[in-house]
Amino acid sequence: DAGITQSPRHKVTETGTPVTLRCHQTENHRYMYWYRQDPGHGLRLIHYSYGVKDTDKGEVSDGYSVSRSKTEDFLLTLESATSSQTSVYFCAINTGSNSGYTFGSGTRLTVV
Amino acid sequence: QKEVEQDPGPLSVPEGAIVSLNCTYSNSAFQYFMWYRQYSRKGPELLMYTYSSGNKEDGRFTAQVDKSSKYISLFIRDSQPSDSATYLCAMSARYGGSQGNLIFGKGTKLSVKP
Q: Cβ separation of B101 and A58 shorter than 8 Å?
């Protein structure tokens, strides 16, 4: 199974502070994704990456930035956290054309 | 109109019932269709993967794709309490690239009562 870990699992932060979430994969998959999941909205794509230093915006990218300096790590940064960014954040990797995505366990972020 | 529509439920059935979950979509370019299962406070896990039209069966689960109607279904036979979860449909037009990004339905919450 593809290994994918997210850290931290839970975080409470104050409005206006920067926050970085980390996604780490143990294999060498090219495509990585950040989603947020909210009641009534389902999973929405924030940013994705198709290689080292190659990233692009998804449906809800405002207020978020990403970086991928190594194949195995994909970082999501909230430059200045707002209460509307309280959500569960999932990282995913694309493990192949017949395999769909493998998701991490999620990061539950609360902005107070 | 959202690209992918899915009835959020909740859906409650007795143990042993046949469950039918559905999604409709508007983008005729979609070719890859998936169903994910998500237990409470966990990440989604891939349940079924189908390319183009047709049926696919895996144990108690059957996925159907009708591209002419832009409609996909997941059937669960002999449902068990352990099937209680949220089921998300997902689809994309291609593998990789921006058109390979999965578009998800909002999910249907299923509860199977003993």
A: yes
